[in-house]
Amino acid sequence: MRPRHLMVAATALTLSGCISPVDYGKIRHTDYVADPRCTAQAGAPVDGEALPLFFVTTRLPDCRTDEVRLLGYRGDRTRFGRFAAPGRAEKAGNKTLRTPMAFQEEGDWWRALQAETDRRQGRVLLYVHGYRETFETTSKDAAQIARMTGFDGPIVEYSWPSQGEVLKYAVDETNMYHDVRNFRDFLRSLADKPWVKEIVIVSHSLGARLVIPAIGAADRLSRRAERTGNISNIILASPDVDRETFERDIVEEVLAPDRVALGRRITVYTSLKDKALALSRALHGYPRLGSPYCFDPFQAADLKAKGLPERCYPAGVPGLTVVDTTDVSRGASGHSNFLRSAAACRDFVDVIADKRTRAQRVATHLSHVFRLVPDPADPKPDDNAVCSRTPGDEED
């Protein structure tokens, strides 16, 4: 076997989780949640000023110590709560992220969300993270999205039990599929609320595989008497989704003509420099939606013969826009350009604000695909400042 093939095979084995499997641990899961703090009581006060952001989680909490933590294990129920942007704390000589948070009884949580939604424009932003995330890292990203976009409504983070470790991709994938029903039920409940006028969904990486089927289910099972397009603005950042499966199925439900007529749209952020999705392709055998890799060598040859970049995208359908961030990619893996690259962050902010076009997008030979390129007037922008990142944050 050639060295390059050996490297791909070794990487795929690593990503599969075979090297670092998950186990139950040395503590009974019931012991983690025995403390009453793991079961929020109706009417218990929560400081919404100090904890302005909302979360829903299926992670198992650890309530054995003064500081409640959310773990990578599957929880015994879906929990609701409030949180604030995490900060760095000293522990055993090391700096670590800590997220201020508090659980809230489900009914109280929904009432608080309604009050915040009613105060604004009836819009809710729902963020669903991807692979290799802890509650702290995904809370950091959710808080960054809130700062960067200035979104005029509540921000809700849905945190499923990702392990937060490079070597546990297969465990994350398994937990994500296990969580499909939980997320579907939550999204349906959110979409059914008459006070929710618009839901903006942002998913990253593996999170897209939770989001796409849940939207279709929410459409089919909605309890609302009137037809609604409140799940309207869907953003798939670096989606770790089979591109061919997406092409085959997306019009059948999520971008069905009646839904597009109600204003639904999907924006996909993709990059050929996305190393994480290149490894996912090596593992799964087929290209990912978040990478314009040409799986078909004949298609690549045809593009080259026409003088076009060898980049392949999903077929165009009404309601779908693809934004290629290859030329402005940032970060060690290029897997989070929407939070790392100034050009991509600016585009993302405009999409959140419901702007359908941007002068900074460069048209391609495909009407639904646009490229982001460096701005000649600002070739080296301050990515941290534009993306509202804290200098020194770890790269993706």
Strand order of the largest sheet: 5-2-1-7-6-8-9-10-11-13-12
Q: What is the typical, i.e. mean, pLDDT?
A: 92
- The rounded distance between the terminal residues' Cα atoms is 31 Å
Count of helical regions: 14
Strand residue percentage: 15-25%
Total individual domains: 2
Backbone structural class? alpha/beta
Quantity of strands, as a count: 13
Q: Report the radius of gyration as a whole number of Å.
A: 21 Å
Largest sheet: 11 strands, mixed
- Principal-axis shape equals globular
Could you state the order of secondary-structure elements as H and E?
A: HHEEEEEHEHEHHEHEHHEHHEHHEEH
What does this protein structure show overall?
The chain is of the alpha/beta class. It has helices at 3-15, 29-32, 106-119, 135-149, 169-178, 180-192, 208-221, 243-249, 257-261, 275-284, 297-305, 337-340, 342-352, 383-386, and strands at residues 53-62, 69-83, 87-91, 94-98, 101-103, 123-128, 155-159, 198-204, 231-237, 265-270, 320-324, 361-363, 369-372. The chain has two domains: 3-237, no CATH class; 282-396, no CATH class. The protein contains 14 helices and 13 strands. A hairpin with a 6-residue loop joins strand 1 and strand 2 (69-83). The radius of gyration is 21 Å and the shape is globular. The model is unreliable at 1-10 (pLDDT under 50).
